[in-house]
Amino acid sequence: MKKIYFYVLGLVWLGASGMVPGAALAQNCLQPLGLAKNTEFVFQVTDKGRNKGTLNNKVVQQVTDKDGAYVTTFKSARRNKSNRPETAEEYHIRCVNDTVYLDAMLLLREQVMKAFEGKDFDFTPVDIAYPQQMKIGQKLPDGKLGVKVRSSSVNITQISMVATDRKVEAIEKVTTPAGTFDCFKITYNYEVDLDAMGLPLRDVFKVEEYFSLEHGLIKCQYYNKRGKKAKGLELITKRNAAQALQK
Fold first, then answer.
1. Model confidence, pTM
2. H-type helices in 96-180, by residue range?
3. Tens of pLDDT along 15-31?
4. Which helix (H) or strand (E) holds 170?
5. Of 74, 71, 64, 85, which is closest to residue 38 (Cα–Cα)?
6. CA angle 149, 130, 173 (to 5 degrees)
7. Which of 10, 73, 151, 218 is least surrounded, with the fewest CB atoms within 10 Å of its CB?
8. How far from 227 is each of 69, 165, 186, 221, CA to CA, in Å?
């Protein structure tokens, strides 16, 4: 079974009108979100505010696919707080015209999938779209991931993971160990629906994320139904291609 650490990303601009001056230059499909080959970016992972290790990412390829989309591929490795590797996966960012699409596999929830280790999976993704021309109050398209779990002879269950009711709420300045960034604050509901042998189960989180067109995800925080902190991410380092190769 794939062991995939989940998190959903968002986007950001700055300016009196709700957009970053010169944003068209920042949103360059040849380097979407400021990513070039060998760029490395690392997140602090938390759960209920406690350190749970890091998520280490590196861009490994950038190509134009058969449909004309510019695709950035990055490898993502989860390390626990003892710096021991736990998971390693590969994700994609597509850039088409004025929109960036983040891999819907980022919606996959690790805790749900652990229950079906050793089974087979069929995925139906709808990638997470971020239009270039965003403004405060704008509603963004849903991102979705459908998962069918099966054995060699029978379908076991179906799982739906959706980032819904996505909305650009504000422009805020966010400071992390990686620096200070001007960000769009995007909120949404992260909904997980599971058909467990005919018994429907649902889990819902409120999510706040902060993202920069020039630097990508800066911070993301999940809240449970009681309003308490659940999973979280915070950018702690980012190295461009030259810096990464010199380390």
1. 0.80
2. 110-114
3. 222 333 333 333 467 77
4. strand 155-176
5. 74
6. 115
7. 151
8. 39, 17, 17, 11
